[in-house]
Design a protein that fits this description.
Layout lengths: L2 H49 L13 E7 L4 H18 L5 E7 L4 H9 L7 E6 L5 E3 L5 H10 L1
Parallel strand pairs: 1-2
Antiparallel strand pairs: 1-3, 3-4
Amino acid sequence: MDSSTLILLLLILWIAVNYFMKCKSETFEQEVKMQTQENKFKKLISEKINLNDQEYPQKMDDKKIRIIVFLSKTCPACVNFDKNIHNKVKEQFMNNDNITIDKIYSGESALNDKMFNDFNVQLIPTCFVIDEMTGKTIKTNGVLPNQINDAVNKL
């Protein structure tokens, strides 16, 4: 084997190793992202299940409220929520640090699909407003800012 063939083989081997390492790195990053998201929602679901029957008197300032909006990237009403309504909802609650808004997209991950099943989402867009302290959950009849605000005020 001459030196040019050896150099060519080493170059091909180097390219293959770098490609494999890049793929492995991207997979690891996706797994870390999914694990972080999974831990966040496991905690939310466990609080919802474990505290659902308990009542705690609270002032609005003490409440931790999570707004979860279930969407799809292909549904026209969901795309409208993303482009137009989401920012209005964020603005409505931007001065309240106790309110968190999460968007969950169907088909984006196994965890998201599990969330769709756990919350028994049949139609999209669908919104749930959850008092994280008591587990009390309100499913809204829509995803317009006034509908979400009404649900928050009922908690």
